[in-house]
Amino acid sequence: MRDHLRAGIAVYNDGYYHAAHDAWEDHWLELESGTDDERLLHGLIQTSGAVHHARNRNWEGAVGLAESAGDYLAPLPSTYRGLEVGPIRRFLASLSADPEIAERRPPVRLEYESGVPTLDSLGVTETGIAAVVLAEELGFDEKPVERARTYARRDLEAGADDSLFIALLFDFVREDEHRGLVYRRLSEHVSKRRSREEDVKGLFSE
């Protein structure tokens, strides 16, 4: 829960409002409907949708999602699982009353565990989640990124502090100006590692 929650918060706080919901959605779908955790993620998903619609001047869509998100978050305490829920509820109330507020001021920042997480503050597991989300949002083929995430997780479990895949995932998430170049390098190294794995399988199948 924490990794998906924090990854989505960082994606949102860095301005990828539409993409943020993907970081939360996979985990949300596994939760029992009506639980506090499900309400939290459902509310956040709809908050990101409301902001996305407002920034695209779809006022009706923004109002509908802001109201629905507020309903999901209403039963939760002001701080839940480390997330400051109160400021989000107040923002949603303002947005539903006046969606054009999105053109006059930035949307609410999501405060989590006494900070405001951004992409450059994420750990390895959270960065892997964010990388796949951003790849899809920005038009990259997410399959090599998902594979790099798998390799990074294996390297981490094996205690490899110098994992190339971990470094490339960090760079892909954090370096806006060079993301295309990083993606090409990441894809090349994924292809090389997959080839080595296939070679090893071939040796043992003969």
Automatic annotation (TrEMBL):
SUPFAM superfamilies: TTHA0068-like (SSF140663). It holds the Pfam family DUF309. It comes from the Archaea. Signal peptide: none annotated. This is DUF309 domain-containing protein.
